[in-house]
Description:
mainly alpha; 22 helices
Amino acid sequence: xxxxxxxxxKMLMPFIFVVLFALSFLHGSIDEMWAxxxxxxxxxxxLISDYLYIGGFGATMxxxxxxxxxxxxxINRLKMHMTGPIFAGILTIAGFSFFGKNIFNTIPIxxxxxxxxxxQGLEFKSFMIVVLFSTGISPIVSFLIFGGPWSFFIGVPLxxxxxxxTGFILPSLTAHMARFHKGYNLYNIGFTMGIISMVYSxxxxxxxxxxxxxxxxxxxxxxxxxxxxxxxxxxxxxxxxVFDRNALSQYRGLxxxxxxxxxxxxxxxxxxxxxxxxxxxxxxxxxxxxxxGIEINGPVMGGILTVMGFGAFGxxxxxxxxxxxxxxxxxxxxxxYALDDVGIAIAVLFVxxxxxxxxxxxxxxxxxxGFLHIIITPLSYLFQGGFDLYNNxxxxxxxxxxMIPFLEAIKKDDVKEAQx
Length: 420
């Protein structure tokens, strides 16, 4: 019973780690896995760098599981509870460890935030939400070390210093950027990092340095990742019902939430109902991919896990499906974008960053928001140069900033919704 109690409190995180770590040894020998892992660490890691293509299945799973373990240990050492934002942050980290995040490029960012906390005389754990989402900009560290035109001995200190500096400025910028979209972009830190990345890409462009180094993706392990998603989603759904037999009746209440920041489903509806929602969001992600006929690669798997993670922090079927429908409509109607393009597939998953717009203003407005998101996302990538892994969060910030003032003029938020 003690194990069951701990799994409930940790929202299955130990189970997820064990599964991912075990999968590290599914393909090839340990030597092959380690060689692939070294290649992952040496990758410039800018969008889109599929670690499945770069290092293989075993190495990618080892990267995902070790990054996951480090963050779980950090949360435990700081004696923090598994809230909705923390759960979303950890699962997002796991997702983006399929394409762009590794231990080498994340640590400098963490150090920068730690130094900022010390300078402000605050506890490090008070910035934990920023910490967990901060490594979306970690490719800048890898690029400066492994992707630039300078020597390794210049690149290493340059990458580390820039990474620490980026982490240092991130908390203060994040607090200000939330006002830009008024809480309707769940990937608020992604928007902040997009602004920082835009500055970095402008500097590199001024010095004529090529940083568009994203490579091909690998769909070789689609079946394994499909089954993994089914396993995780099913586990969360079963856990929801096991831990609370009335989870389904309470789930209806969760889906009435707008999802606007900060919507902590764990705090508001409990762990069991939240886990049910996490599993449902995983299944919905798979259904959308099946409709598109898209096979799962590293970036797509990252999108699935992020959608599931935010099932504890703002996303649910009622507010997510309209914006996904709008994204699909845009991909279908516009001749520039193809439904089977991996970038569009990723955007259809990550468009749920603006799910609160549908939650607040209804399904039709949600469809419109999703439509605009798909159009803006490729352009936002050109601005930030691939250093912000949360590029869709960058695009979502502009969509929300464009739509919300007009929508608020038509339909004022009441006090309760403004505080939700």
